[in-house]
Prior knowledge:
This protein is of the alpha+beta class.
Amino acid sequence: MKRFSTILALIVSAALLTACGRLGSSGVGTTSSTKTTSTIQTTGQTSDDEYQGVIQNGKYKTSKARGLTKDQNTNGSNLKSFENGLQTISQKQFATDDYIFQEGQYLKKATAQNWLDRKSKSNASGLNPVDNGETDATKRNPDYIQAIEEQDYMTQDGNNLKLGGMTIGLAMNQVDYYQKEDYGATYETKISHDKMVSEGKSMANTVVSRMRKTEGVGNVPIVIALYEQATNDSLVGGTFFAYGISKDGGKTISEWHNVNEANYVLPVVGSAKSGSTSDADSFSNFKTNVQSFFPNLSGVTAQTHYKDGNLSGMNITINTQFYSETEIKSFTQYLVTAANKYLPSEAAIEITVQSTDGTQAFIAREAGEKSFYSHVFGSY
């Protein structure tokens, strides 16, 4: 929900890798050997509560197995929520001032795929249970884990970087979608929350034990974060519900911490929950006011995120049919006024105005701030 990082992603994402910021301020330099010379740099930071990333030989160092997931879940919001929330969990153990973020390098794609598949004679490392041959929703063994993600946290070692810690996210299913035959109808096996938690914690210990045997990991702290996938028909992604820490080279999780998070969609439809009646009312007043001022709107919706029962962020999307630059500018100015008047005052707020031509305007306010930042996207 960071204002500046969102603006950069929308306007100058290509320039991030060459941004000044704190580029090279960590003292990271050149690593030499008899055959190659590897230059390590960092991306710099747009704010103190975000990690610097690793650039090697002038290129961002990408993940070995990024975005790998079983193909049964079609909710695109899950992956975004999973990856963004994973860094938030990491900050509880790895401070942004002390560690540099690196995309996962130790869990290879083929290994991760084997872990996500079912255990079988040909795949002894599968984390999901053996297929028992049943097709009835209540009798079959469901897939419990849907995705796995590794994030590495580096520390400075002279002019080089070394692994200082690692976070691995396990995305768990609350519903397992399956087919009884290829290209057939899709069925569902519902998984209780208690079963999801127990399976996740058991898998966490297995993953820690395996990572300890991986070359280069050593005795660094390993954080395992457990994420509950949202269902396919959800308009928001899932949430993390627990994380555990393995310290001092331990092969199991030595301590577990609960995470109390929830996501909702506004306006509320049918019997769905809103998270907070007052927050829902605030959004409703904002929506009504905006639509009465500019009637050519296709829709105004919001995603809300709660931590420990309190609203921490609200992402509002406004779909419009405007094409006039002057209309967009006037509309953006009015949105700032309406947001200040109607929306909750403490939470981080993002408002995106978009049409079939793309994003037209962006408005944001960070948590605890009083004023909004706005930008209208133009062209030459």
